[in-house]
From TrEMBL:
The UniProt record lists the keyword Methyltransferase: yes
Name used for this protein in its record: Methyltransferase
GO molecular function: O-methyltransferase activity
Cross-referenced SUPFAM superfamilies: S-adenosyl-L-methionine-dependent methyltransferases
A biological-process GO annotation: methylation
Record's keyword terms, sorted: Methyltransferase, S-adenosyl-L-methionine, Transferase
Record InterPro entries: SAM-dependent_MTases_sf (IPR029063), SAM_O-MeTrfase (IPR002935)
Source domain of life: Bacteria
Stored Gene3D superfamilies: Vaccinia Virus protein VP39
Amino acid sequence: MPMLRLSFWRMALGANRINRGGQVGDGREAAVAEYVERHARAGDVDDVLATIDEFAYHQSFLVNVGDEKGLLLDAAVRRADPRLALELGTYCGYGALRIARAAPNAVVYSVELSAANAEIARRIWAHAGVDARMHCVVGSIGDGGSTLGALAASPPFGPGALDFVFIDHDKSAYLDDLHSIVDHGWLHPGSIVVADNVRIPGAPKYRAYMRRQQGHSWDTTEHRTHVEYQSMLPDLVLESQYLG
C-alpha cells in the first residue's frame, strides 16, 4: 500500500517541516513538476492531474487532496458553479487545478506559504494551459493582514464575490482563517466551503464549530473517505454551505 512506502514514512517524519516550510524536504515537490513536464500532455488538464496521481502512487507520496477525495472536491465545485474560487494551501497546485477543471469559467486564487511551492504550482498550471486564470498569492491569511490586503486589492474580490473556498493548509488555522474570510464579507448565502483532512491530521476545532453552527450560519455534510493515495487510513472532508 502507498502508506507503507518509504516516501510515505519520510513524509510522516517530515510533518513538522511541512507545517513550517511547506515541503517534505527530500525534493519530491520539485520532482513532481519535472515529472509532469516530461510525461503529461501540454494543455491537457485531465492528463496533468492523472500524471500527478501516478507520481504520488508510484514515485513519492504527496500531500495534496488526491484522486479519491478529489471527486468530492469536484462535485462540490460543480454545485457551487463559481466565478471566483479561493484555495488555502496550494502545495503543488493539484487542488486548484481540480477546481479550475470543474469550473471552467472560474478565476482561482490560491494562498501558499512557500514561495518554492508557489513556483512549482505555476509551472504545473502553465503546462496544463490554465495559468491565465490562476493566481498564487505567497503568504498566509493569519500573517497580520498582508495577504488579506493583497486579496482585497485584487479586482475580483469584494462583498459577496467569493463562491467557493477550499481549505487544505495548516489544520490549526482552518477556523481562524475561515472567520477572517467571513469577517471580510466575501461570502454570500450559498457559498460553499470544503475542508480536507478534518480527521487526519485533524481539525477538531473546525469540525466542532461547524457542528455547533449546523442550521444557523452553516449547513454541513461530513464525507467519510480516506487519506490521500491509500485506502487504510480514514479521513473526513467537510462540505459546508454558508447560510449568512
